[in-house]
Specification:
By secondary structure, the chain is an alpha/beta fold. The chain has three domains: 66 residues, 2-Layer Sandwich (Histidine-containing Protein, Chain: A); 65 residues, GMP Synthetase, Chain A, domain 3 (2-Layer Sandwich); 63 residues, Histidine-containing Protein, Chain: A (2-Layer Sandwich), CATH 3.30.1340. Strands 9, 10, 11 and 12 form a four-stranded mixed sheet that branches. A hairpin with a 2-residue loop joins strand 4 and strand 5.
């Protein structure tokens, strides 16, 4: 006989997020504030680098009952680590060129400690790879990923193909996820039980050779 897991209150979600932050070894939990409203978590405070910021966001998203995470964290680099825009630009270019899954079409602009990625690639995994290649570099506090995908060929059965891929996935309940397409633009709706499931469904849609944009509007419910 199946049982229904009771919904967590905002207070319970906040405590769980704080515990998960404390459990995450690459996060200094004492420097991060947590507030929750209807399952939406806001993280605030200061961290020493962008890598710690990302780790904190991922930690919050792992917690049951979290529907979304708002990032109000600021990066405050440790003293004694002066990094100029020129230094950052050199490291970013070196990292992009060293990554075998990042096409040469990806370019980077540096403004202070913000890296803006532009260009056009064939697949979403290449766009994500470009971001991953630079977001952990010293001196980088924020990455604005504006890389776009090339135009896709038309297909009448794009919705069916994505739905079949979702059905094949062992982590997802295809009956609760709906797919609609308008040309190259795909929209996902429905419900899942965790951020990981929502992310997995989005990755499946992005893998379609007929989608250049995916709106992941799936809701997270218990």
């Amino acid at each position: 006989m199946s049982t229904t897991t009771p919904a967590r209150t905002d207070h319970e979600v906040r405590e769980a997020v704080e515990q998960e932050l404390d459990w995450t070894p690459d996060v200094e939990a004492l420097g991060i504030g947590v507030s929750v409203h209807s399952g939406a978590v806001t993280l605030s405070g200061e961290v020493k680098n962008h890598a710690e910021r990302i780790a904190a966001l991922h930690a919050a998203l792992r917690v049951r009952g979290v529907t979304t995470v708002l990032d109000d964290i600021t990066v405050h680099a440790a003293s004694g680590w002066p990094v100029t825009e020129t230094d950052i630009a050199k490291e970013v270019q070196r990292a992009l060129r060293a990554a075998t899954n990042v096409p040469e079409s990806v370019k980077a602009e540096i403004d202070g400690h913000t890296v803006t990625l532009t260009g056009e690639v064939g697949w979403n995994f290449e766009r994500l790879a470009a971001q991953k290649a630079v977001e952990y570099l010293r001196g980088v506090h924020f990455v604005d990923n504006r890389v776009s995908l090339t135009a896709r060929p038309a297909a009448r059965d794009v919705e069916l193909r994505i739905k079949q891929a979702i059905t094949r996935n062992a982590l997802l309940d295809a009956d609760t996820i709906h797919v609609t397409a308008d040309g190259e633009r795909v929209r996902l709706t429905g419900t899942v039980h965790s951020w990981a499931e929502k992310q997995q469904a989005g990755a499946i849609a992005w893998a379609s050779p007929f989608a250049s944009h995916v709106d992941n509007d799936i809701l997270i419910t218990l």
